[in-house]
Design goal:
Radius of gyration: 22 Å
Largest sheet: 2 strands, antiparallel
Oligomer: single chain
Shape: elongated
Number of helices: 4
Structural class: alpha+beta
């Protein structure tokens, strides 16, 4: 299995563990390791550099200690008004 992972990584050096695993699954390979295991394999084989890895961390949620410390808005698309004008409503995102 590790040879398949390393071969695919060599063909697509920008792909990370999740994308590699997904592609191998799409190719009907069975008993694939978890993305974390693929990541460990790539690190062990020198395919992932720690400095580059830090740049690609998953985003973190914006959380605050108390309510109303952070507000977010979502643009819902325009609505045609009766006089030909357009209204551009925003909706608060409630967490």
């Amino acid at each position: 299995m590790s040879q398949s992972i390393l071969k695919l990584r060599a063909e697509h050096p920008a792909w990370g563990p999740r994308k590699l695993r997904r592609r191998l699954a799409d190719l009907d390979l069975q008993d694939l390791p978890a993305p974390s295991t693929i990541s460990a394999l790539l690190r062990r084989e020198g395919q992932i550099e720690p400095e580059t890895s830090v740049q690609h961390r998953a985003c973190q949620r914006f959380e605050r200690a108390r309510p109303n410390e952070l507000w977010q808005m979502d643009f819902k698309g325009h609505i045609a008004m009766s006089r030909g004008e357009r209204c551009h409503p925003l909706a608060p995102i409630i967490h």
